[in-house]
Amino acid sequence: MCTITSLILSSLYALTDGVRNLGHTRTQDQPKTHRSRARCKATTRQRKKGKEVEKKRKSSEITTASVLVDLPEGWKEKLVALGPDSLAKVLAELANDGQITASQIKKARHNLPSFSSAKWSDLAPQFNLGPNLSDINFDKFYIPSFFLPPSFHEPAAETAWCIQDVYQERPEQLREQARVRVFDAYLIPIVSLFHGRVVNTPEHPMASTAYSSGGEVEHELFMIGGILFFVVELKLRLQKGDNVAQLFLELLSQMNNDAKFEGLRVYGLLTDMESFHFYSYDPTEKKFAFDETLRANTTRELFIEDMINVTNKVFSVILHAYTEGLQAIVKKSQERSPVSHIGSSVIQQRRGVRTGDNVNQKETNCAHDTDGCIRLLAQGPVLVLVDRLQTGTLPSPWPMNAWISSRSQLVLLKRLKNSLATQLHY
User: Where does the signal sequence lie (predicted)?
Assistant: First the structure.
């Protein structure tokens, strides 16, 4: 009964207020339609105001709720000290008890300060760079382009054409994932040329640094030994300064902290599939360098044609970085302590297996086999490949100019693949 009475009273109050407002606003010259429009506008304004108040109220409630959580001091540090595996189990149990979905967790992680929120104005002062990216003269680190044969480009173009049939033309793509799919048509065949010696890890979580809290990146390329050398960041629309800052933070996050490879340069590509900006970072000099910018037309036929140059460039960067990584492996193998005498076990005596004093058996064999198997030397624009023959003699160095034919390029890759496949066992 009380509920019915309250509903009746509230209806009467609303009706009284409506009549009172109508009496104040009614005039003889004012048409009825104008009064209705005015009333609708007033109602819309009240609703918008109510939503804003509701948002503020909810925000304040969330803030208050976070303050009211009764946890002892240092709880966060204790959880982090558990380590990644144990902490993941704790978080998984909390997510199950709280009925939190994986998509909610991913969304919450993206909302944290990370690469995606990087600002050029915040990063530039830390590296003594100017506030305007266009006014900065980066150090030049140019990698000449090698030419892949038409037999490589044709299947990649066919695949890219089919993908664009599905995801439409570039101006019609409204999500970054569509750009990623199109770029995969070119990147995957390039990486496959190395037959497993280069690995792509898409959407791989990146470590936090003093400059950012981490995040994820579209593509990271690793080679044997866990050496990272290439990062690809795709954007729907480029905001040059902030996007470059994001790429730079990713390069800083994934520079090789391993003492064996800490001096290796890390390369990065920033693109929206229309412009392709190639950068790199030298951990030794702690400087960023610019390579060049390539562009692709938005029209499909012209885009496919322009991507030939982009594909050659991406391949050239990967091959150059891959060569640097091999040089680092060979150099470290030469610095290893000498191998000891043949092991005492029956199998070791029969096979002549030697054991190292300071490294395990697998690392010892791999290091010294690599030292004799392959040498890759960088002499300015010339690459020299030296293979060990079965007789133990070394042929004369095979010079290869920076601009080489497609056939020679494929021969180089084949020889690299065969040598590594038979000698390296990581």
Answer: 1-18
